[in-house]
Amino acid sequence: MTAIVSIRDLTKTYAPSRRGKGFTALRGISLDIEQGEIFALLGPNGAGKTTLISIICGIVNASGGSVSVGGFDIVSDYRKARGMIGLVPQELTNDAFVTPLATLRFSRGLFGKAPAPDIIEKVLRDLSLWDKRDERIIALSGGMKRRLMIAKALVHEPDVLFLDEPTAGVDVELRQDMWKLVRGLRESGVTIILTTHYIEEAEEMADRVGVINKGELIVVEEKAGLMRRMGRKQLTLHLHEALAAIPPALGPYGLELAAGGTELVYTYDTRGERTGITALLADLNEIGIRFRDLQTEQSSLEEIFVNLVREGDGR
Fold first, then answer.
1. What's the total number of domains in the chain?
2. What values do phi and psi take at 312, rounded to 5?
């Protein structure tokens, strides 16, 4: 696929001020984001997610490196690059005393786009805001204000949409609606880059995942491949009779006792050629341990993310 956003050796260092020490927010970030994908950028607070997005969108100046959007450099071809980008920031920044309709007309004009009532109407309808088009923004609910932020980012028909914590502070129903909207945008050809604290959001929607920690991009991989490569599975055996301890013959399997000795838990690597399950079941039968049921569980993207960050911190 074709990269629509290309980042090379990007750095950002904040100089010391009277109120605090300087620090490096980004350390040599290089990344290609492909046209038409949903890319999730994960990382703990202060990892550099918002700084990275702010540089790409022209809000913050980089200390070094380069970024291009659609082949346009964000510095030398600023207007063309910025015109391809829609940004939904974390903070709600709407003018409280104007209407959604007026806001979208103004936002479209900022990008030099001709008036297009049909496009504005479609964006408002897609975000369930058409009935509120003539109300003052101050009268809208928090969820509607969040939808309006997305509408403002879409009204100039961008090729790339940045969503910085798009569902922070919204209820579950609105979150599901936004997921549906994002999938629809991707199907129409828009590239989506989102940052999120909700791991299930990335697990639900992303094609690829990047993990950033302390300003460094520590992994970029297709979500499915990452979960295969780093995921682990657990087999839980529900025993007929409780065990006081794990028999020595089962020592090589690294089993754990759970639920008061009524469950045996076996953790195995999905990357291995053999899981060891067949041998384990044979050995259980050999020593007369019977079970009434079994179940398997795959590690989640959240567990993988936590482990990656811990490894990056040297813990």
1. 2
2. -65, -30
CATH number at residue 84: 3.40.50.300
Mean pLDDT, rounded, of the chain: 85
Pair of tokens at residue 96 = 């409280």
In a domain, 213, yes or no: yes
User: Given this model, what pLDDT does residue 28 score?
Assistant: 95
How many residues comprise the chain? 315
The DSSP 8-state label assigned to residue 268 in this structure reads E
**CATH number of 267's domain:** 3.30.70
269 or 177, which is more confident: 177
Domain hosting 63: range is 3-227
Both tokens of 152, joined, read: 């403002």
Check residue 46 and report its DSSP letter: T
Torsion of CA 112, 118, 122, 128, to 10 degrees: 100
Residues 6+ apart with CB under 8 A from 306: none
**Secondary structure letter of residue 20 according to DSSP:** B
CB-based contacts of 17, cutoff 8 Å, min separation 6: none
Q: Are residues 124 and 268 in the same domain?
A: no
- Distance in angstroms (rounded) separating the CA atoms of residues 169 and 189: 28
- 144 secondary structure, DSSP code: H
Q: Where does a domain end: 168, 198, 227?
A: 227
pLDDT tens digit sequence for 34-70: 999 999 888 877 888 889 999 999 999 999 999 999 9
- Residue 91 predicted with pLDDT over 80: no
